[in-house]
Amino acid sequence: MVAWCPRLPALAREGGSRSTLWAGPEVLTRAMRCGDAAVQGTVRQQSVALRLGFASDEFGYAIDLGLPIPSASAFSLDPEIKREVIWSGPFLRSGNVLVERRGPMAKAAEGRGWRAVAEHLNAFDSLFDQLADPQAAPEAMVLRERIRGWRFYDHFRSDHQAPARLPQLGTRTPVLSHDGHDLAAAWQTIREIGDAEALAAAVDDAFPGASVEIGMDDARFQLRFLQDGLLRPLSAAELSDGTLRYLLWIAALHTPRPPELMVLNEPETSLHPDLLPALARLIAAASRRCQVWVVSHASRLIAALREQPECNEIALEKSLSETRVAGQGLLDVPAWHWPER
């Protein structure tokens, strides 16, 4: 899970900064796109850059990471932050910048001028880590807390040693953790301070006649699954991978503390195809309380989501290994400007 900028250990695990960069030629010419010329590299003309950003009606943020100046350091391949900008409104303009960082220096807008707020920022740490001061740069603190509230569920483990299968110490848990280790506590929290009826209905929608109870033994909570035809409840350790994952999605999407943004990456993983229509209804119900982004390659789940009135689909297509929004022309691209170095 990424909070506001790429963490160096996360990049290292994925193969280093080179793994985040476009592996194709710097420019795909018209002849290359039409197949009239071979795809081949040329001498690089532009600086190496990894740029990330987002915007809303209130605030926007962009970060530009590049390689450091060659030195004798053993960490010469670690990316460093070249630019960071916070602005008001949906896209960057010269007149709506609130906080601007260039290398180790940062300044904040003050009236019609600027006020220096930092001069020695670390090149490997975001300004959110070093400048979240309610006096010096209140916009950075507000935006940092907003981003911290986002939730990313990328992969729930379901192997025999998965945290969700083991009894865990139970404390009030309004937000399911990204690894699902607190599933039983989160489930009980929803039953006590959330929508218990919707929780039970979601189980019945996917597994007709089934229900979930939470066992408590010396402050340790364990989820138990009751199903028609069985004489005893099944513990989380006995559940199939798909059943356990689906219960995790139910708990995540029924949080009593809905965030502004929740991102689900391939939630169909390990689920039986017959569960995908129920999953689509579960996601649609959650989207009435917060913005939910779903990344999926499952055609059946996508088809089921299309039937939900709350769903807006963005299809991606790949050409010459370049991913683009399907059907988007030059005149359809939303207004967006990256900060210049």
List the keywords:
9 helices; globular; alpha+beta; 341 residues; 4-stranded antiparallel beta sheet; 2 domains
Question: Outline of this structure?
Answer:
The protein is of the alpha+beta class. The chain is built from nine helices and 15 strands.
What can you tell me about this protein's structure?
The structure is a single chain. This protein has a six-stranded antiparallel beta sheet with strand order 1-2-3-4-5-6, covered by helices on one side. Strands 8, 9, 10 and 11 form a four-stranded antiparallel beta sheet that branches. A three-stranded parallel beta sheet has the order 7-12-13, with helices on one face. The chain folds into two domains: 8-148 and 319-325, no CATH class; 151-310, Rossmann fold. The protein has helices at 8-13, 30-34, 127-130, 138-148, 183-193, 196-206, 241-253, 276-286, 299-306; strands spanning 50-55, 59-66, 80-88, 97-102, 105-110, 113-118, 151-153, 168-169, 211-217, 220-226, 234-235, 261-265, 291-295, 316-319, 322-325. β3 (80-88) and β4 (97-102) form a beta hairpin. α5 packs across α7 and α8 (276-286) crosses α9 (299-306). The chain is built from nine helices and 15 strands. With 341 residues, it is of the alpha+beta class. The longest helix is centred in the last third of the chain and has 13 residues, at 241-253.
Which stretches of 5+ consecutive residues score pLDDT under 50?
1-5
Quick one: overall form?
globular
**Reported CATH architecture of the largest domain:** 3-Layer(aba) Sandwich
Q: Tell me, rounded to a whole number, the average pLDDT.
A: 90
* Individual helix count: 9
Count of individual domains: 2
Helix content: 10-25%
The CATH topology of the largest domain turns out to be Rossmann fold
Cα gyration radius (Å) = 24 Å
CATH class of the largest domain: Alpha Beta
Total number of strands: 15
The sequence of SSEs as H and E is HHEEEEEEHHEEHHEEEHEHEHEE
Head-to-tail CA distance between termini: 27 Å
